[in-house]
């Protein structure tokens, strides 16, 4: 009974970690798209100037 519970617990932990990693991958892709859009907006919106679309 105990080995079965340990296997089920391990499966649950691995499933949760896999889900969290997948969510982080989608978050990283979203940040990359926003970052790339910033370059497009900066180059198209300023006419070649050194303007920034963010305030850092």
UniProtKB/TrEMBL annotation:
Source species: Streptomyces luteosporeus
Record-annotated membrane-spanning stretches: 30-49
Protein name per the record: Hydrophobic protein
Keyword entries, A-Z: Membrane, Transmembrane, Transmembrane helix
